[in-house]
Amino acid sequence: MSLGALSFLTPLPLLGLIALPIIWWLLRATPPSPSRVAFPPTRLLKDLLQTQNSPAHSPWWLTLLRLIIATLVILALAQPVLNKADPLLSGQSQKGPLIVVLDNGWRAANHWPLRKIMLQSLFEEAQSQERLVFLVPTAPGNINADLDRISAHEGISLIEQLTPTAFNGDRTKALAKLEKSLARTYGQTTQTPINGSLYWLSDGIDQNDEQVIAETFKQLSQRGVEINIVTPDEKSLPLGLSARLGQNGVLYGVVEASKANFDRSGQILALSKRNEVLGRSSFDLKAGTQTIEAQIDLPLELRNQIASLRIVGHQSAGSVHLLDQRSHWRRVGLISNESGKAAQPLLSALYYINRALDPFAQVVKSDSADVAQTVSKFTEQGVSVIMMADVGRLIGAPLLRLTEWVEEGGVLIRFAGPHMEESQDSLLPTPLREGGRRLGGALSWAKPQQLTKFDDDSPFAGLTIPDDVFVTRQ
Q: Which residues contact 327 (CB under 8 A, 6 or more apart)?
């Protein structure tokens, strides 16, 4: 119901204005006379004067004030709304349905509060015009999943339940559901006029579905539906974030923009599992460039505690990247009996181990052949894995220190060789066979043997054994 620039969402309580004369009469009613009770004559009561008088009617100003209060209460119950000078729903389609296609995927999270304000305005105008509403979210969810028509009042109550999802929206599937819902309400024929309004609250990002959207909107326009497309400002579009490991395990945050017409800048936060800020890195994405990398410069101990990367000021799921064990850079210590630089590096016991580990870990080597000194140095540096290449029996302080280090969670990997065969210690997974193995030459097989599957308690458990690897001799 509208009265000039003022509309009432619930006009029924306005009938209470009819009762104002009755309220006026009740307010002016003469109060009941005081009852008289006989009291024994007393000397003290004889000279008392009767100074209290009861008026026949309430004062006119008090009656007027009460009537104004009653009128304001009735008007408040009618939910008055001041009409906008330029309403969203106007024209010849004022009596048709309101169709709202809502992009509610992760790309819409960055400007979601503005979308809720827009939905509130649309549904309130539809309620004042007594229009049906079709709410069409494009991302999967439980809100109006069947796209049944609802009242504008029901639409207002759904606004607080609507939240952006962490998934991509499927506009093609959502529009197909809308066509089925309209067919149930207005019939299967495309010639039946609908005469409504459609608002598409777009997230502003193309998803290669423009042709399907254009064809659907064209059909609805031919049936009298007024099409309105609302897109966010390009500067508020979300940024995508991922991570990349560079040379020597350097961690980079990779920022990607969907459109590159403007300069974009910001900061990337490196967070721990408890959302503690471990570090931050700035980026400056120039116009015309869609991708930029920002280096996360932290010590190895802190860098391995990073659980997620997040772009400051962006609320979408695409602006958060979770890290797992693959992004951690381990410190590995290598120990052998060789001292310094070998005269023939290709024959060094650590050469190929170093080559295999270098792309995936921070390799720490010692220039000293003193195993006790090297073990003490590595354990103090907090290495995750120690690899020994043909180191014989461990005794004394190195054995005790390595035993404590392994019991605290360290991983010790030992490569067998002549020195280990001759003398063994307790830091071996199984006793090695001593003697009887040297037959004056290489022990070989007539048929090459394949590697067997690693045990479940092995450090290499879960690794796939390649089919093209064979052992011809030991």
A: 243, 245, 251, 306
For residue 159, what are the contacts with CB-CB under 8 A and spacing of at least 6? 116, 119, 120, 123
251-289 per-position pLDDT tens digit: 999 999 888 788 888 999 999 999 899 999 999 988 888
CA gyration radius, the chain = 41
Report the predicted TM-score, pTM, of the whole model to 2 decimal places.
0.60
Q: What is the pLDDT of residues 141-167, one digit of tens each?
A: 766 556 678 888 888 888 888 888 888
Which residue has 């590096």 as its token pair? 345
**Considering only CA atoms, which of 333, 460, 335, 332 is closest in space to residue 388?**
335
How is residue 177 written in tokens?
A: 């559901």
- Residues, the chain: 474
